[in-house]
Sequence to fold (204 residues):
Amino acid sequence: MAIDPKKHEMPTQDPAVRAHNFNEVALGYTEEIALAEASRCLNCRNQPCVAGCPVNIHIPEFIAKVKEGKFEEAYQIISETSSLPAVCGRVCPQESQCESKCTLGIRFEPVGIGRLERFVADYHNNEVSELPEVPASNGHKVAVVGSGPSGLTCAGDLAKKGIQGNGIRSSAYGRRRSGLRYSRIPSSQEDRCQGSGNTEGARC
Ligand code: SF4
Fold:
C-alpha cells in the first residue's frame, strides 16, 4: 500500500465560530484519522524518533497499538515514560524533536507523532475512568515547589515510588497557565492535571 506523503491534518474549529469563543482551536484527531496516520509509521528497527524525544517515549510501540485500534494500550506505553501526554501532545515542539528524526521525513512529511500522542491521551481521559494504581505509601513525604510540568512530573514519579509529593503552588498555576493561550490548551485539561498531581501518581 502506498504511503500517504502528507501528515493527516487535525480538524479545527471553523474560523467563523472560533472568532466568538476562547475554546481550543485544534480539535484533535478522530479515531478514523488516527488509524490512518498511524498506518504511515514504518516501525523502524533503529527507532530514530525515540532518540529525538526528551523523555524517550516508546514511539513505534505506541503507534503500533494505535494502528491495531488498541488505544488504551497505546496510552499505557506512553505512560511508562511520560506523565503529561495530553499536555505534551499539544505543546511540545515535535517538529524539532521526535518528528525531526522520523525516517519518513527524509522523503515525505514525518509521522504526526504529537498528534497521535494527543489523540491517545484524550482517548484515555475521555473513555477511561479508573485511576492509575499507586503503590502504598512508604511514609516519606516530599514538598514539590511549583505545579508546572516539572513539578507535576516530579510528584507523579514520586507517587509511583510510594512517596507522597505535596505540591506547593501559587494561584498562577505555574508556567503552563501563565505562558500558554487557552486556545492552545484548555484550562479543563490543566485542571485535570493539577487536581491529580499531588496524590495519585498523576498522568494527564
Ligand atoms: S522514525 Fe518515524 S516511521 Fe520510524 S518508527 Fe519512528 S515514527 Fe515510525
